[in-house]
Design goal:
Belongs to the RpoE family. Keywords: DNA-directed RNA polymerase, Nucleotidyltransferase, Transcription, Transferase. By secondary structure, the chain is mainly alpha-helical. The protein is built from eight helices and three strands. A three-stranded antiparallel beta sheet has the order 1-3-2, sandwiched between helices. Strand 2 (69-71) and strand 3 (76-79) form a beta hairpin. 9% of the residues are buried.
């Protein structure tokens, strides 16, 4: 296979796998599936199956990050220079549409309907309070608790002051 790229065996061994992928795509002038591309690369480098499996994710990441490559969807890879910028954007979008049904409905319409329904609620009815209900004055309950807490705090302070005075007297002696 190294003959297909017109490279010597030593050159193939020293060349990075991502560069081999680029050379292969450049020479074939057509997109290739990653698995097929990777299989050819590992065969060119005479890699064992376990060595190939150890490197498969790393090479995929390198191809993905390398600006020379473009994913055309369904794990089909080509060279970015083959496509116009507009075509690149369209192919990226079309690859996405193939797997998911796009919802063309405006999702904000539902929110608007809910707001309209909310506005239609009879605010008078919501704010009506039965006159039979007794109002509980919560503030009075808290005020009593607050007085008790203040008194307990004052007592604690008085005790501490007395202890401190005793200690001061001991120090003066």
């Amino acid at each position: 296979m190294s003959n297909a790229l017109n490279l010597e065996a030593e050159e193939v061994k020293e060349m990075a796998m991502v560069d081999l992928a680029y050379q292969m795509l450049n020479q074939s002038k057509k997109p290739a599936y990653y698995r097929d591309l990777y299989k050819e690369i590992t065969e060119m480098k005479n890699m064992s199956e376990s060595e190939a499996m150890d490197m498969i994710a790393q090479v995929y990441t390198e191809i993905n990050l390398d600006g020379r490559f473009i994913c055309l969807g369904e794990n089909l890879w080509g060279l970015k220079r083959w496509y116009l910028v507009e075509t690149q954007e369209e192919s990226a979008e079309s690859g996405f549409r193939g797997k998911f049904a796009l919802d063309d409905d405006d999702d904000f319409e539902d929110d608007e309907e809910l707001e309209e329904e909310y506005d239609e609620i009879d605010n008078d009815r919501v704010n009506d309070v039965d006159e039979d209900d007794e109002d509980v004055d919560v503030d009075d309950d808290f005020a009593d608790d607050e007085k008790e807490t203040d008194e307990e705090f004052d007592e604690d302070l008085d005790d501490e002051e007395l202890e401190n005075e005793d200690e001061d007297e001991d120090l003066d002696m």
